[in-house]
Amino acid sequence: MQDGQSLVFIEVRLRKSKFFGGAEASITASKQHKKIVTTTAYYLQQDGNQACRFDVILMDKVDARHID
Predict the structure, then answer these.
(1) Does the residue 35 lie in any domain?
(2) Computed over its alpha carbons, how large is the radius of gyration of the chain?
């Protein structure tokens, strides 16, 4: 996503229960480095370096109901 002059990388995490710690606990330091940082570095090398930031959307249990 672009926000002004900044490129924004967004990580969305959804967990149906907090049995294993919920959405926040699912982003470990290892995952941050291996997936987020590595992917971002690759993207910026291809598309040119620019200001960027990381946003995280954490959701625990979505109550999906059909509304008529």
Answers:
(1) yes
(2) 15
Residue 14 maps to a domain: yes
pLDDT of residue 62: 63
Domains: count for the chain: 1
How far is the C-alpha of 40 from the C-alpha of 7, rounded, in Å?
10
Contact 32, 16 (CB under 8 A): no
Q: What are phi and psi of 46, to 5 degrees?
A: -80, -40
The pTM of the full predicted model, rounded to 2 decimals, is 0.65
Is residue 13 assigned to a domain?
yes
Domain range enclosing 32: 2-60
DSSP 34-53: IIIIHHHHHHHHHH----EE
Condensed to tens digits (0 to 9), the pLDDT of residues 11-36 reads: 888 887 777 777 878 777 787 777 88
